[in-house]
């Protein structure tokens, strides 16, 4: 079975149905996707902000923008040592500094002329 990504129409349908409090299993049946794909999409692109909690939610346009953007390493003019760190963001949209991938795990390249 071929891998097909969600398109803008499907993401907008997810957004509208989530706002209408439709269960995820019904959303999945409506757009013809597996419910795990819908859960994964919501988890990946759900926006949360502690200072502005009324804006928390899933936004289909933003999800489409992130999905269609090139990978971070192609968009940043920084040295390779920074690109992986800056591009890894947590579910809240901030840099992930947890135990899996944080500043302590970055392998900095040795500078030339220094031990």
How would you describe what is shown here?
This protein has helices spanning 8-19, 24-31, 35-45, 60-68, 72-75, 80-87, and strands at 46-47, 57-58. Mean pLDDT is 76; it is low at 82-86 and 95-102. A two-stranded antiparallel sheet has the order 1-2. The chain is 45% helix and 3% strand. The chain has two domains: 8-68; 72-105, no CATH class.
Secondary-structure blueprint:
Layout: H1 8-19, H2 24-31, H3 35-45, E1 46-47, E2 57-58, H4 60-68, H5 72-75, H6 80-87
Antiparallel strand pairs: 1-2
Helix pairs in contact: 1-4, 2-3
In short:
A two-stranded antiparallel ribbon has the order 1-2. The protein contains six helices and two strands; from the N terminus they run αααββααα. It folds into two domains: 8-68; 72-105, no CATH class.
Total strand count, please? 2
List unreliable stretches of 5+ residues.
82-86, 95-102
Estimated helix fraction: 40-55%
Q: Could you tell me the strand content as a percent range? A: under 5%
Biggest sheet overview = 2 strands, antiparallel
Q: How many distinct folded domains?
A: 2
Report how far apart the termini are: 52 Å
* H and E order: HHHEEHHH
Whole-number mean pLDDT: 76
Shape: extended
* C-alpha Rg (nearest Å): 18 Å
Strand order across the biggest sheet?
A: 1-2
